[in-house]
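Justification of resources, computational component.

The compute hours requested in this renewal are based largely on the per-chain cost of generating structure records like the one below. Each record pairs the submitted sequence with a full structure-token output. That output is archived, and it is also reused by downstream analysis tasks.
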Amino acid sequence: MNLSFRLKRFFFNAFREIFIHHHSSLEFRAKLFALVLSAKDKATVNDYIIVRKIAMDIYENDEERANLLMVSTKEIRKKIEDDNKDVSEILIHSIQKQLKIVPRYATKIEIEKLKDLLAEFNDKDTISYQENILEFLQTIKEETMLNKRSLHSINNKNI
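The structure output for this chain reads:
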């Protein structure tokens, strides 16, 4: 990474919510990627390159935003690991909590894009665990969307 990106990253980390447009949305996506990578003991550089590649697709070749998603994913995973906590458990709880607060984030759960990270796993147990995580994410997405529609129809009836 070049010097200008490192400087931007320093300031973005310090003042993330001020400088980054839709910061909480980007952070939610980073949690999704960190959760998918949580099946591995150690994420590799190649894993984060794949995250960046997916982010370039999501953000329509916006390099800065793609880099921020990659770095945020890495930071979230590292912070939880440094606290010696179960990465998956904490991220699952956090994702569920955020979806209750902001149900529209369910649309950001793009299983097909997250599946791109599965190619990096060779161990059958890891792949199975990973598939369970994707299944969980698909289920929570569908439940959130259903609840959102139900609330919307209830509100329309009350009007």
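Residues 3-158 form one domain. The helical segments are 3-14, 16-19, 23-37, 45-58, 63-82, 87-101, 111-115, 124-158.
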